[in-house]
Amino acid sequence: MDLDNLKSLWNKEDVSETPEISPEKQRQIHHPLERIRKNMRHEFWSTIILLPIILIVIWFFPIPFRFRLYIEVLVASMTLITVFFFSKFFRLYREIGNPTLGTYDSLKDLFHQFELNKQYYLSFYLSFVPFLVCEMIIITESIPYTKTYSNGFLSFYLLFPVILSLFGLYFLGNWWFQYFYGKYIDRIKKLVDEMKMD
Asked: How many beta carbons lie within 10 A of that of residue 165, not counting itself?
């Protein structure tokens, strides 16, 4: 095979390059990304401030030592869970701040990160259900008159709030994510779809 035939075969192959995004479109995408980053910072600092406040209230509230100890262990466990999820959250925060979001492939990867973080977000909210169950058991066992509850009433007393909380936390997590992040993600998707049509 000679060199001319190789060149013609090479030119016939469909080699698709990763399309670049124009600087103007990058600026349009930058605004919703910056809003997402701002909301992430706000949420992070709110949580950092809230956890010590909870512990201070527990320490200064006149409650029996065992009850306080149980609550402190639960809050410490919740803090560990929060740290784990915020480490995932922080990875997305850094990715959004990456200045190399200039290609469609990088945006596609970013949308994948958004989808993953939405799942993390819902998991974060649902991970608090076992803590709620523990708190309810601790409170129930600490109140003397609950010893007189029948087995059926006690089952209902524990299961109904747990089931309600499970659905409530799931819908709250969905709403919270959509309100603080989803609308900006949708705006970016719309801009990307417009670019595809151009």
From this structure: 17
Cβ atoms of 100 and 106 closer than 8 Å: yes
Alpha carbons 171 and 144: distance in angstroms, whole number: 34
Say how far apart CA 149 and CA 155 lie, in whole Å.
10
Query: Per-residue DSSP letters for the chain?
Result: --HHHHHHHHHHS--PPPPBPPHHHHHHHHHHHHHHHHHHHHHHHHHHHHHHHHHHHHHHS---HHHHHHHHHHHHHHHHHHHHHHHHHHHHHHHHT-TT--BHHHHHHHHHHHHHHHHHHHHHHHTTHHHHHHHHHHHHHHSGGGGG--HHHHHHHHHHHHHHHHHHHHHHHHHHHIIIIIHHHHHHHHHHHHHHH-
Give CB contacts under 8 A, 24+ apart, made by 62-66.
Answer: 64/142, 66/142
Instruction: Give the residues across from 30 on adjacent strands.
Output: none
pLDDT at 13: 45
Tens of pLDDT, residue by residue over 84-121, are 998 888 888 887 776 566 667 777 778 888 888 888 88
